[in-house]
Each structure stands twice: as C-alpha cells, then as structure tokens.
Amino acid sequence: MTDDLERRLSAGAPRRDFDLAAFRTALGERADRAGLVDVAVGQLDSPLGTLTAMVTDRGLVELAYPGEGIDERLAEVAERVSPRVLAAAARTDPVRRQLDEYFAGRRTAFDVPIDWRLVRGFAGAVLAATARIPFGAVSSYREIAADAGSPNAYRAAGNALGSNPVPIVVPCHRVLHAGGGLGGYTGGLDRKRFLLRLEGVLDG
Amino acid sequence: MHLPPFAVLVDAHAAELHRFLVGCVGPADAEDCLQDTFLAALRAYDRLTHTDNLRAWLYTIAQRKATDLVRRRARRPTRDLDGVDPAAPAADGMTDGTLWQRVGGLPAKQRTAVVGRFVLDLAYADLGDRMGITAEAARQNVSVALRRLRSEVTDDR
Known about the structure:
The complex is a heterodimer.
Chain A: H1 4-11, H2 20-33, E1 39-44, E2 51-55, E3 60-64, H3 70-80, E4 85-87, H4 93-103, H5 122-131, E5 139-140, H6 141-147, H7 154-162, E6 175-176, H8 189-198
Parallel strand pairs in A: 1-4, 5-6
Antiparallel strand pairs in A: 1-2, 2-3
Helix pairs in contact in A: 5-7, 6-7
Chain B: H1 6-25, H2 27-45, H3 54-75, H4 97-104, H5 108-118, H6 124-131, H7 135-156
C-alpha cells in the first residue's frame, strides 16, 4: 500500500552531490590533526609513475610502484602495523620532496627515517647492506649476501631485495648479477634501467 | 582477525553514508556529520574486536551522530518573531523540508529505517543488514515510523 505520505517521502527525498576525493582529503587532514592516523598514505608523482608512500610515526614503511598490488600492500600494512590507515598527504611531504630532488638530479642520498616493521630476519640484514651502496655504485647479489653475513645465501638475498618495501630509498636497483646482467626488479626492469641511467651507471 | 585498512572503509561506504545522513540531518550538515562519524569510527577502530558487518557498525555510529546533531539543534533557541526556525536544517535541496524535519525528529531507529527505505530505496532485507536486524524488524520500524509521521502530519491540518 502506497499512500500520499509514502509518495511524498519518495518524491521529496533530500539529495546532495558528494565528492569522495575532496571528502577523503578533508577527513585525512582532520584525523591527522587529531593524531588518529597511524599510517598516512600519500601519492607522489614521479617519472616512474605515481608512487604510493605510507608513513608511520617511525618513518617511511612502504613505497609502492603503481599497479594492481596497491590494495594488497595497504592490507599488509594494516595487518602488520595498524589498521588506522588513511590518506594524509602532508605526512608524506618530506618523502615527496626528497624524491623530487632525487629525480631532478639534485639529491644523491635519502635521509628520511625508515620504519622497518615490514621486514623480517635475513631480509633486514640484506636491505641494511643495500642501503649502504652509494649513489653511482653497484653491487652484486653475492656481495650483498656476504655483507649481510651469509656469503652463500645469494638467492635468499635476491628474494629479500625483491620484497624490499621501500624501493628507490633503499636502492635495491643498485644490485646486479656479478656477470653484468641486470638481475630482477620489483618495479620491472625498465624502471631499474631508468634509475641506473639517472645515477650514471648505465649510458643513455 | 584482520581489519581492512580504514581508507578502504571510507572508499567503500562514504558515498552511501553521506546519502543516509542527507536524509537524517539535511544536505547542509550531512558532510560534517559524516566526518564526525568516520572520526569516531577511526578512534575506536584499532580496539574493534570483530570484523563482521563493518558497514552496520558504521551505520550505528552515523545514526548516533545524526541524533546528537538533532538534539543540539533542539537545544538552540527555537523560534524568532517571524516564526522562522533559525535552528532548522538549511532548506536547500529539500523539496519537502518540513516533512523531512519531522523525519529527523523520529526516534533514531525509526529515522534510520525511513531514510534507508525512502532515500536509499533499500529493500527490507538490505535495510535490516545495515541496521543489524532482521528484514521483518526493519519493516516494522518503517511501519511504526510512518504511523507516527501520519499522525503528526494530520495534526498540522
């Protein structure tokens, strides 16, 4: 049974447009001011595509290349760090600034703090050794494994580099095969080549 | 127990909850009320002990925030000399403003039911799912609310 009242309720229902992107930004800023954002997410434009940076009170916990893996990366951070994950671009500004300078050729080392909570065991030693390779230099999987304390564990070193949660900042692109081959790269070999050219290791 | 990243909840439910709050408190205050809703949710989020039906959990909070706002309005000075209610929700976007103010003044569950049924156009099963009750209970809430609104509207005449 539909009577006059129900018709009025259906026909006169109030409406208002909603802008999700603008709401996300406003909510993130307010939540951040209230200290409620444990993992702040921001997008960074770069020559390698739009990067997603995730920052905690300890530092940069994740830097993700564009692609279908973003949802899984967010879910992993939610599970292992905190589910209070929200867009709050201002918190990622220091990372954005340093990456901009790096891609513009004005920076050769990063000094943003890193949150290592997504890294466990041997991978931590591998990534710490990788972080010591300077701009313009390269190393090999075997050397990195040795620096990490297990000279024979170069395959494990390769896996650890492949799961580097903070590429570019921890420069896993500087690790190559001893014979001169490029090896692998999470972001794809084109990106690895781009970074090595930027650093003057590869010609072109 | 794995809670999804809070940002995922925002992206999944903000638009629908906004439409819900537009029905509850009017277009002018809906977005503020939605911010309050998500802020309260975020405050409690890492202490949450269940992951089932997070949408219903958000609806509960939104319903509470709408009630808070309706009460704050009622405490403000009510009528000026011209009989215009300065505390009333802004009438923009409202084709039947007085009726929807009455909806706003319903008890929380009845208001949620009416807004879910007539603004969101939900079937009773879907309405019940959002309210954490059965389809039949949702239907009853709508029915009681309509009876009440009908008597109030008749009193006007």
